[in-house]
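Researcher: Let's try something more involved. This one mixes different molecule types, so please make sure each is placed in the same coordinate frame as the others.
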Amino acid sequence: MLKGSSLYKEVALLKNYLTKNRLKLTQQRETILEAFLRVDHITAEELYREISKKKRQRMGLATIYRTLNLLCEIGIGQQRHFDENRTIFDNVLHKKHHDHLICNKCDKIIEFESPAIERLQEEMAARHGFTLNNHRLELYGHCLDWKKCRDWQKSADR
Amino acid sequence: MLKGSSLYKEVALLKNYLTKNRLKLTQQRETILEAFLRVDHITAEELYREISKKKRQRMGLATIYRTLNLLCEIGIGQQRHFDENRTIFDNVLHKKHHDHLICNKCDKIIEFESPAIERLQEEMAARHGFTLNNHRLELYGHCLDWKKCRDWQKSADR
DNA sequence: CTGTATTTTGAGAATCAGAATCAATATCAA
DNA sequence: TTGATATTGATTCTGATTCTCAAAATACAG
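Model: All components are placed in one shared frame. Result:
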């Protein structure tokens, strides 16, 4: 999804933010934005390899990190820290708030939302005299259908 | 809480696990267990400083990490990764499963449980063809009562 | 268009939590 | 007590991420 779709809006968003903050629109930033919008979620390292492969231009890993963090500030991305130690950058531009279901076997990540759960969370917070800013809900388990699990693992998307 | 209370049961639990796995009950392991049971949650570094202060014995940081992980295997502790990058070891021996409510202002951590939320989680997982192993739910926000928030911050417990 | 001030880049060094190494030491079971 | 085995602590290593800084790119005033 989002193969040839126009990036006008996204680039405009980035450009706007940059201008507003007296920052510069560089080729690297555009390349990274473009690649990032193409995926659902990705690590800095993965994105680095992805871009290096199509060596359209030299690109430092530090730049990837810097730009990914920039995109998070703009609101296009969001950092996630699942069980491991590396940061996953989630492309949330076209998504509503959502929680995650993670397969321990094949690392599949499913996004879901549950207004019912959110409601209960608010209730819980109120009971303890808290005002909520945000939350994190991650469900860990495994796919019931082991074959699908394996198939997904093999899919190019990984 | 749990000041002079006997550690018989806990030491027995540890001893049992060690024997079963042909491991050894060392002074360090006992010291760490004892210190760990005294707190609700703590980082390896904090526990290290805590024990070094009462320099009853020399103790390497590596040993703290190793033993803390051992306690997690036994089930006395559980790792938590809140927003930061360091691991918090949660003493769960006398606790049921619980989730966390975290104040962004004063770092207060409140533990709670909600069977209703758990039920909805199971339902959600089933809907996506998943069997759940465990989950993580963290609510971030701030105490409504800023004064209490500050007071808690100052309390010796921190 | 051009010069210049300013920001960004890339390569590698720095960090930082945590894990691995390994010789010296402690534990345990006979 | 002994000897096999596990553990310790000091240190080094690792891997992800950030920092540094000279060189390059960009924006913008003229």
